[in-house]
Design a protein that fits this description.
mainly alpha; 3 helices; globular; 46 residues; single chain; 0% strand
Length: 46
């Protein structure tokens, strides 16, 4: 069983992969909900 990342882990993974993190956490939360919180999505998003 694969579990999605929680929001804090999601932000940490974005930083790890040098992806930009929005200053507005509401935007990041929307991104998290749209992407599903699965680590594989980091390879698919610009």
């Amino acid at each position: 069983m694969i579990l999605p990342l929680n929001f804090e882990e999601y932000l940490g993974m974005k930083q790890f992969y040098n992806k930009p993190v929005e200053y507005n956490m509401a935007i990041e939360l929307n991104n998290y909900l749209n992407e599903g919180g699965f680590p594989r999505t980091f390879y698919m998003t610009p």
